[in-house]
Amino acid sequence: MIKVQKQRINVSEQNRNLLKKRIGAVVNFIGVARPLNNSGKIKYIEIEHYPKMTEKKIKEIEVFASKKWKLNHCIIIHRYGKIKPGENIVYVGTAAQHRNNAFKACEFIIDYLKVKAPFWKIEQQNNKKTYVKSKKKDEKKIKVNY
Amino acid sequence: MIKVQKQRINVSEQNRNLLKKRIGAVVNFIGVARPLNNSGKIKYIEIEHYPKMTEKKIKEIEVFASKKWKLNHCIIIHRYGKIKPGENIVYVGTAAQHRNNAFKACEFIIDYLKVKAPFWKIEQQNNKKTYVKSKKKDEKKIKVNY
Amino acid sequence: MKIVYFSWLKEILGISEENVRPPKNIKNIKDLIKWLGTKSIKHRKVFLKSKNIRCSVNHQIVDKNNKIKNNDEIAFFPPFTGG
Amino acid sequence: MKIVYFSWLKEILGISEENVRPPKNIKNIKDLIKWLGTKSIKHRKVFLKSKNIRCSVNHQIVDKNNKIKNNDEIAFFPPFTGG
User: Fold this and answer.
1) Cα–Cα distance, A29 to B94 (Å, whole number)
2) Among B12, B30, B86, beta carbon nearest to A12
3) What is the per-residue pLDDT across A15-46, written as a single tens digit (0 to 9) for each?
4) Which of A56, B72, B106, B144 is 20–30 Å from C32 (CA)?
5) Residue A88: CA count within 13 A, CB half-sphere
6) Alpha helices in chain A (DSSP H)
């Protein structure tokens, strides 16, 4: 299940969904908006995305990971719009028979979301708006091609 | 925070605790009781533990992982007693500035719990009680010594 | 041909999309970038930094040698920073 | 000296713990296992399989050469299967 949405992610609800099937291992990742950057306090971040492309790209990642790591269930939710520090930005949940697969799939998905899904972040401070730069480290981490 | 308890783990509550501090990345693992083993349906599992030793061992794992991966928060909860298929058995939650640390710590903790914490599982079927055997694979996975 | 802009490209240009009719000798993304860079001072400012610009054709990421057709939707944007 | 048993060891023996006074020549876990194995048929059954038995002294996992003292709490159990 994938979703691109403006509202906050209800993590409990998603975990209940993941746990519905009686599988052995559930892993999830929650990305949270940070309160600070190098130049100080962040009022909020704003995430822009490319609607016609976003869901398609996330779906590709979901399908690939579900097959490769034999997932019983996979949930990917990414927000856009204004997000305050401390709020969640992204939720990735994986459920599998064995924990290794659930872990690997979850980490793969968030790594790929970072560099393959069309989202752009702005950090809004009191008098300053910063277009967040992508991390080279993140791009290097991606080895598998699909 | 570590806990050894009989009752079900309230995953939502623990995730709320993890998310309280305004960190960047939260990872959690939930182990779920399986409905089947090689010889068929499982009615319930029963987990025995060594009370005087359990918390101490889990605490050691928590302290080690928190330091090694600079965790902002770490929650480990393991149940004992009768557990029905589909119910959770164990919860590991890690919160860190960066996702790599949160993932590595979470996976480390569950790997170590499997082979270092004094729990023993019984699978109860209709006419059969099986003492679960440890997996060599799990013991091999543990490389770091602490 | 529809051109779509995101992030700082959109901010500098002041528009999120535009329809263009490039001449026939504009055959791939590289050509298109050069040609778009001549449209205005703002366009030049954006497309001069073209090493930092990524691009998609009909919602597929492509490299700059990718051929383009008249009814394509072409998007320009910086590297992604979601997650 | 308090001996504690878990899992199938407890089931076979029918007890979860017992107090014992081994003779003075019983100095380490290996000796203790041999000596406990002579206590009853059930004990022999359990301690014959001693390769599959792990052990702790005062809640610390130890190997079978570990020295033992009179007021130690010594536990015998199979490899852990939690998580």
Assistant:
1) 10
2) B12
3) 888 888 778 999 999 999 998 888 899 999 99
4) A56
5) 24
6) 11-20, 51-68, 99-116, 136-141
Q: Where are the beta strands (DSSP E) in C10-72?
A: 17-19, 54-57, 60-61
ipTM: 0.89
**Are B32 and A12 an interchain contact pair (Cβ–Cβ within 8 Å)?**
no
**CA atoms within 13 Å, Cβ hemisphere of B122:** 18
pTM for this entry:
0.91
Question: Tokens standing for D83?
Answer: 């998580």
Superfamily the domain D2-77 falls into: Beta-grasp domain (3.10.20.30)
**Contacting residues of B for A26, CB less than 8 Å apart:** 29-32
Q: What is the pLDDT of residues C16-74, one digit of tens each?
A: 999 999 999 999 999 999 999 999 999 999 998 777 899 999 999 999 999 999 999 99
Is B12 touching A (CB cutoff 8 A)?
yes
What is the C-alpha separation between D80 and D75, in angstroms, rounded?
A: 13
Tell me which residue in B50, B52, B132 faces D81 most closely, judged by beta carbons: B132
Q: Do A27 and B32 touch (CB under 8 A)?
A: no
Q: Is B31 on the interface with D (CB under 8 A)?
A: yes
